[in-house]
Amino acid sequence: MTKPTIRLPEGFYLHELDVIDSTNDEAKRLADKGAQSGALIWARQQTTGRGRRGRAWSSPVGNLYSSLLLRPDCPLFEAAKLTFLIAVAMAEAIEMVSGNQIRPDCKWPNDLMVNGRKISGILLESASNDGTQTDYLVIGAGVNVAFYPDDAERPATSLAALGAPTSVKDVLQTYVARIAHWLPIWEAQGFAPIREAWLTRAYGVGEPVIARLTQRTLEGTFVGLDDDGALVLRETDGTEHRIGAGEVFFKT
């Protein structure tokens, strides 16, 4: 680990690396060794980065690859809602470092979009003490700062491509500062203010959506987010479904 080159808010501890297999894997290794909440792993390059469902995440030098270790004192189902807090924090950070030129949308459950193209992805992994109570969360977050993959499954973009070049350090420092802003709010008030902030940036609200679930596929309109963070899909006959997990495709 090299000497830290950025400053973080109180309660956050930087582990800065040139190359790592995966920042999430490194965070889990540290967690298993007893690392405290607030450990932040930042690598300039990953050799086996991944996204949701094990998809490969292109990780060249020039983009942001980070993972945050948290140990919230709550059940796993409550801790999982922190994905939305991270999305809001990262969206605000991107907006701030771009000089308010770029306003990312939050795509359920864990992507940030600009003009219909992905600029950031989030991956949450967890461990429990007894099957229900949280031992730790590892929340990986990546941002296309200088580059974006041209062979991605879905269209992508970067800060540089959008005319807002900045440094990875600036994005990371601003992102962690926004987490430090939102975490006490979540601890004091719960999910409601996070949900409200996320919905102000929600991608595809009021638009057609397809949800591919394990047993079936649903089509309807994305009408909101429920109190547990599930996507609410309304069919043409008015029937509403709450989608907690699955592949979701927006037609916007």
From TrEMBL:
Its EC number is 6.3.4.15. Residues 1-187 form the BPL/LPL catalytic domain. Keywords: ATP-binding, Biotin, Ligase, Nucleotide-binding. InterPro entries: aa-tRNA-synth_II/BPL/LPL (IPR045864), Biotin_CoA_COase_ligase (IPR004408), BPL_C (IPR003142), BPL_LPL_catalytic (IPR004143), Transcriptional_repressor_C (IPR008988). SUPFAM superfamilies: C-terminal domain of transcriptional repressors, Class II aaRS and biotin synthetases. GO terms for cellular component: cytoplasm. It holds the Pfam family BPL_LplA_LipB. It comes from the Bacteria. One of its GO terms (molecular function) is biotin--[biotin carboxyl-carrier protein] ligase activity. It catalyses: biotin + L-lysyl-[protein] + ATP = N(6)-biotinyl-L-lysyl-[protein] + AMP + diphosphate + H(+). This is biotin--[biotin carboxyl-carrier protein] ligase. It comes from Thalassospira alkalitolerans. The lineage of its organism: Bacteria, Pseudomonadati, Pseudomonadota, Alphaproteobacteria, Rhodospirillales.
